[in-house]
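Reading a protein record of the kind used here takes little practice once its layout is understood. The fold follows as a row of integers, each naming the local backbone shape at the matching residue. With these conventions in mind, the following record can be read line by line:

_____
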Amino acid sequence: MPLVITGEAQHKVRGAGVGIGFYPGRCLGRRAGEVVTKTEIIDEVWDMAYDGDVNIVEVYVRALRQRVDLPFGRQSIQTVRGAGYRLVGDHA
């Protein structure tokens, strides 16, 4: 089942019928097929004033994968080494 963006006001992403609610998933979903850097995700999700560790994105992407990929045996969120992340498959 494809990853679907629902309700802009709710900031929700759905994968396989499961509400995700992780903002990085929303960002990747809107830019499906494109490589999105950690910095771009932080700027869009947290905002440019975020001064924490960019690895927070890895934590959220891992959690997102556990909700939308792992249970269904797919790998729709790719890590593009040295560049960022990309949503691929029938959602792109």
Q: What stands out?
A: The chain has three helices and five strands. Helices lie at 23-30, 38-45, 56-68. The longest strand covers residues 3-6.
